[in-house]
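Researcher: Sequence recovery benchmark, item below. Answer with residues only.
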């Protein structure tokens, strides 16, 4: 399993070999070798991607925070009924 994780990590580091030479020339900035296809049409494309990344990261962080420390202290909360049923 460890060798697969190392292989995956190395593949992520070498993403610049995935795109072809024509795509590398068409894409602007750091997106040159990641995917095939033409580059963004305008700066609005970068703004849209940036907003999507921010929203996704916020949701990811909020989800992890709720999993780690849910914050429900009420003894009548539905999770207490489930947890109390599991106790021997």
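Model:
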């Amino acid at each position: 399993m460890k060798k697969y994780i190392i292989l995956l990590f190395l593949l992520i580091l070498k993403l610049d070999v995935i795109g072809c030479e024509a795509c590398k020339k068409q894409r602007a900035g750091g997106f040159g070798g990641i995917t095939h296809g033409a580059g963004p049409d305008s700066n609005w494309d970068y703004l849209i991607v940036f907003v999507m990344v921010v929203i996704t990261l916020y949701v990811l962080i909020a989800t992890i925070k709720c999993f780690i420390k849910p914050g429900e202290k009420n003894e009548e909360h539905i999770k207490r009924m489930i947890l109390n049923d599991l106790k021997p």
